[in-house]
Amino acid sequence: MGLHPSGALYWREQAALVVGDLHFEKASSYHRSGQFLPPYDTAETLRRLAEALTCFAPQRLILLGDVFHDGAAWERMAQADRDRLSRIVDAVETIWVEGNHDAHFVPPGQTSHAVYRLGGITFRHIMEEAGDVPEISAHYHPAAVIRHRGARLRRACFVCTQHRLLLPAFGAFTGGLDVCDAALAAFHGRETQLYLLGSKAVFAAPQGLAAG
User: 147-180 pLDDT, tens per residue?
Assistant: First the structure.
């Protein structure tokens, strides 16, 4: 499987592109509480998604939940963004895996799945420690801190164990949870491998960074 610096995963044998946590319209959700943020996150995330699709030309797009920041996000999207998203998902077979943020919402004409299985792998939004493996999931927006030549760098990352792969958030306006957080205890161990997102490449982190 190929890891892309956008945070996308490409499974060549299945011609499938996998992304999680796009969180469309997260910025606009803050406006209701009086926090005014630049309303460009959706357009930027769509641009990055279109670039990844052009790069890999997949036959299948798997969306691992939290595509929308909340159940009303579709209604808040600019028409141009709605149209662009519709063109994207209509051009390939698109699988919508249910997230916790988007309240099982999918755009008209689409169908969601609690989990999706392909080629012996289970795709779900939130990992299940007692669930079927191998498993690919999202939800936690993992990030890691490394220190190099006196500098402290924090990067979103893929988290890989023998049976599980956790994707970074794909959305342009998403935070990150440190991989050493207790919520990610299932991924803690010296054998866990982190792959950090750079601007143009993905980099393997030093072994043991997720030992917990």
Answer: 767 778 889 999 999 999 999 999 987 888 999 9
Is the CB of residue 144 less than 8 Å from the CB of residue 90?
A: no
Exposed (0-12), middle (13-18) or buried (19+): which is 91, by Cβ within 10 Å?
exposed
In this structure, how many other beta carbons lie within 10 angstroms of the beta carbon of residue 14? 16
Round to whole Å and give the CA distance between 87 and 149.
45
**Burial per residue of 105-144, b for 16 or more beta-carbon CB atoms within 10 angstroms, e otherwise:** bbeeeeebbeebeeeebbbbbebeeeeebebbbbbbbbbb
pLDDT digits (tens, 9 = 90+) for 110-124: 899 999 999 999 999
* 211 part of a folded domain: no
CATH number reported for the structural domain that contains residue 183 in this entry:
3.60.21
Instruction: Using alpha carbons only, give the angle 104, 175, 148 rounded to the nearest 5 degrees.
Output: 145
The answer to the question of residue 210 being in a domain is no
| Contact (CB, 8 A) for 137 and 167 | yes
